[in-house]
Amino acid sequence: MAAQLKVTQIKSVISEKQNQRDTLRSLGLKRIGDIVVREDTPANRGYVRTVAHLVTVEEID
Fold it and tell me: 22-50: per-residue pLDDT in tens?
């Protein structure tokens, strides 16, 4: 089984750029406190890097 990323939204998207809002939605995050588990792929790493100031990330196996 491949490694996975647990992504938690910790800050609001209010006053953030539209592309950052869209990135959070594409990850499946809608509000503060939401948690999603995603496959650890280069694409998902790029999404997380784009909104790194709004989320926390944990690697899970």
Answer: 999 999 999 999 999 999 999 999 999 99
